[in-house]
Amino acid sequence: MLTERAITICLLEVLREYSDFNHILSMSEIIGKIKNIYGLTPDRRTVYSALDTLVELGYDISFYKENGKGYYLRDRLLEPSEAHLLSDAVCTFPFISEKQTAQLMKKIHSLVSTYERKQIKNLNVIRADQKTANKNVFYNIEILDEAIERKRKVTFDYYDYGTDKQLHKRREKKYKVNPYGMVYANEHYYLVCIMSRQQNVSMYRIDRIQNIEITDIALDENNIDPHSIVRNAVYAYTGEVVDVEMLIEPKVLSDVIDRFGANLILSETDDGRIKVRIKATAMGMKYWALQYLASVEVVEPKELRDEITGMLKDNWYCKEG
Description:
- The chain is of the alpha+beta class and about 325 residues long.
- Helices cover about 40% and strands about 25% of the residues.
- A hairpin with a 5-residue loop joins strand 6 and strand 7.
């Protein structure tokens, strides 16, 4: 009985690793792989019985009588295209360290056959120097998940880069915050929180957090929606949301919609530009508009327009003149 159970497990692993729609295994190939890999020598009857057991357990296996060639595992947790997409994302995300990137890639690849794996094995981390040095990102996420679920404050150290290109603690005293949610924005994961005994919402990059701990202190009473905050934040700047009116050239419309979504108000103007009305945080909007200086003019609110024009007058390039 033990051998039959072992054969069933070995058969499943062989089908997972070596079979797919384009690589159908014959019965003799299955028996040969079980023997070479696991040192077991099942007869055909035992393999047939193991196949039936796997089907009863819910595995979608194509049989010889269906395809006329042999046997393969038809349904997998990930399709090759899905594995490729996830692998690409893992390679790209800067908040995942190089070591964790390799580990995650290996796990994703294990969900497709060895042949399908070859299609995605050549993906590489394009900018390894942008990968975080913090290996505790996933641990931080788990701790924050627990704290948010239990509605408890957390403490942590927060790090910034110095001129030596190394991370340094921003301050000696630990941060104590009310964690309300985690969001993905600008290629990074952020903790949305409010500092203890304060009112303003803050966002901290989770890959810059270290030495995090859950306290026994209950969250302060605040009715906030972290997703609503981030929808209106630009470049992870939080703060008061204002009504913004700007004039843009048509060539940057796609960039505007990519950044702010499709729920903005558009209208054409007589000079060929497009009037855009959105809601966004003033600080984030200021830096976004400066990025598109040649194609974007902020009209309202006047305070934001004045701040942008003041920055243009006082910048280093103008001072040189």
